[in-house]
Amino acid sequence: MKLREFAHSRTGDKGNTLNVSVICYDPQHYEHLRRELSVERVKSHLSDVVRGVVVRYELPHLAAFNFVLGEALGGGVTRSLALDAHGKSLSSALMGLNIAELP
User: What's the Cα-to-Cα distance from 11 to each of 1, 87, 102, rounded to whole Å?
Assistant: First the structure.
């Protein structure tokens, strides 16, 4: 299964740092995604773009996570010639992560 079957995502940028939120469609899936969405898996999945530290913030009352991805925007919006300087397509890339089926 793909993460997009369990959640949706939004992104925001600040300099060369990108934050990617992952919000569960169903709050009952939060614990499953908490186990599946480790910092290591997210960084590995986005390793072609993310060069820095990845931090995960858990928001259980919102059934959501916020991942802060360091050195993820090729220098930042004003310094990068990348077609996606703001990193908006990275939320779609993260939604393609394979997730184990629910037990």
Answer: 22, 7, 26
For 84, the 3-state DSSP assignment is coil
In a domain, 38, yes or no: yes
| CATH number of the domain bearing residue 47 | 3.30.70
Q: Round to whole Å and give the CA distance between 67 and 69.
A: 6
Q: How many C-alpha atoms does 27 have within 13 Å on its Cβ side?
A: 5
Question: Is 28 contained in some domain?
Answer: yes
**What does pTM read for this prediction?**
0.79
User: Alpha helices of 1-38 — where are they, by DSSP H?
Assistant: 30-36
Which structural domain, as residue segments, surrounds residue 42? Answer: 3-95
Q: pLDDT tens digit string along 56-85?
A: 999 999 999 999 998 787 665 554 445 444
Q: Convert the pLDDT of each residue in 13-28 to its tens digit.
A: 777 788 899 999 999 9
Domain annotation covers residue 102:
no
Give the residue from 37, 91, 26, 10 showing the smallest Cα distance to 63: 26
